[in-house]
Amino acid sequence: QVQLVESGGGLVQPGGSLRLSCSASGVTSSIYYMKWYRQAPGKEREFVAYIPRGVGPSTYADSVKGRFTISQDKAKNTVYLQMNSLKPEDTAVYYCYGRFSQNEYWGQGTQVTVSS
What we know:
Elements: E1 3-7, E2 10-12, E3 18-25, E4 31-39, E5 46-52, E6 59-60, E7 68-73, E8 78-83, E9 92-100, E10 104-106, E11 110-114
Parallel strand pairs: 2-11
Antiparallel strand pairs: 1-3, 3-8, 4-5, 4-9, 5-6, 7-8, 9-10, 9-11
């Protein structure tokens, strides 16, 4: 059974940085791509960033473009989200999503709070 576990969330001041990690365990099928989503209180879950397992560009939501960077370590089956110049409106629970050849999986989420 595949499990996605996020880490790296926390409280940060506006303008600060955080790096989220998403580690996949129990992987027995091919990974097609990974994504990060987020959900703020009272709002729907929204797409943040996408990275293909193979060749191809990463993509970002307009709201985070130029500030967030998604990357991966294929050997570790881990995806990262480097978040810079954080704003209060980035406050949300951040979820990792993985599309595998046999199924799709979500992580449990990690809280990011941007506040002074």
